Amino acid sequence: MDATIHKFRDASGREDRPSRTEAEDAVRTLLRYIGEDEMREGLVDTPARVVKAYDEMFAGYDQDPEQILGRTFEDVSGYRDMVLIRDIVFHSHCEHHMVPIHGRAHIAYLPDGKVLGLSKIARLVDAFAHRLQTQESMTAQIADQIQGVLKPQGVAVMIEAEHMCMVMRGIRREGSDTVTTAFTGTFSDEVAERARFFDLIRTGSGR
Ligand SMILES: Nc1nc2c(ncn2[C@@H]2O[C@H](COP(=O)(O)OP(=O)(O)OP(=O)(O)O)[C@@H](O)[C@H]2O)c(=O)[nH]1
Ligand SMILES: [Zn+2]
Q: What are the alphabetically sorted keywords of the record (predicted)?
């Protein structure tokens, strides 16, 4: 499993980033490549729209996951049991074909004195989803980032996703989900904790 976390790059930091105009020209080239007339009325503004959409869909390269998780809370009255956020819907793009992946992430951790703001976990998913991804990398990146920043007793991540590159092209197989998991700490060591994680995802009543 490739757990490499893309290096945080700030918007101005990459000297080799093409300009907006160059990116729009590249879209015009693709329009011509598919057989379109990039000058026809309906397409005149399309390159600018596509680049704007890319800014949003790939905003993750300018987001620092560590900063997203930065603030933790310690005053949780001694709560030590599992915290599970399930069904975090996300949209991403596969790094092989640059077409959408859509799915759900289920993320749990066993606190060791500190907890995260709940919204920060969904923000973390978005930061990684808004980059080119493989499902395996994204799963490992989320687990490693939470483990690294929060240092809980363990992290469990499960992602279920559909890859449009398998639906719209190639094998053209609708409805198959890919499931990936990553476990650290107690979840990695103890089969019972993993079982409770799976139980809570499916039934909501692990104990
Ligand atoms: N492991 C993994 N594979 C993925 C993911 N997303 C897409 N793929 C696969 O990446 C592979 C790329 O295979 P290639 O043979 O290089 O490319 P291709 O000719 O477009 O492959 P086909 O999709 O089989 O037509 C395909 O099998 C895809 O299904 C992912 O998140 N993880
Ligand atoms: Zn693909």
A: GTP-binding, Hydrolase, Metal-binding, Nucleotide-binding, One-carbon metabolism, Zinc
pLDDT digits (tens, 9 = 90+) for 83-126: 999 999 999 999 999 999 999 999 999 999 999 999 999 999 99
Which residue has its alpha carbon closest to ligand 1 atom 16? 96
Is 163 among the catalytic positions?
Answer: yes
CATH class of 68-203: alpha beta
* Cα(42)–Cα(31) distance, integer angstroms: 12
> Could you identify the residue written with the tokens 């991804």?
133
Q: Which of 97, 160, 162, 190 is an active site residue?
A: 97
Torsion of CA 130, 131, 135, 138, to 10 degrees: -80
Question: Where on the phi/psi map is residue 78: left (φ > 0), alpha (ψ -120 to 50), or beta?
Answer: left
Does residue 6 have a known ligand-binding role? no
Q: Within a 13 Å sphere around the CA of 164, how many CA atoms are in the beta-carbon half?
A: 14
Question: What count of residues does the chain have?
Answer: 207
Look up 96 and say whether it is catalytic.
Answer: yes
pLDDT at 6: 44
Which atom number of ligand 1 is nearest to the Cα of residue 163? Answer: 6
- The confidence score (pLDDT) of residue 78 equals 86
CA atoms within 13 A on the CB side of 77: 0
Do 18 and 27 touch, CB atoms closer than 8 A?
no
- Asked whether 172 and 165 are in contact (CB, 8 A), the reply is no
Give me the interface pTM, i.e. the ipTM: 0.88
In this prediction the pTM is: 0.90
